[in-house]
Amino acid sequence: MNLVPVTYKGGIYRHDEIMDLIEDLGGYVIQKHVLAQEVVLQALVPKDDIPLIASIARPLTGEIVPSPLVGTEIAVVTMSLEIHHLPHASCDVAEYIRRNGAKTNMVGLSRGFGKRIAQLNDEERDVINEHDLVIFLLGDFQTCIQHKFPVLRRGITIPIVISGGPDKETLQKIIDPPVDGYVGNVGRFMHRTKESEELEKLDEVVSEITRVLENKREEMSKDPPSVSPARLMDVINEQVEEIHDVLSPTPVTVQMMGLRVKLPYDTFAPVLRKLTLEGEVKVGEVADVVPSRMRDYILIRIKPFSETNIMV
Question: What is the rounded CA–CA span in Å between residue 105 and residue 128?
Answer without folding.
Answer: 9
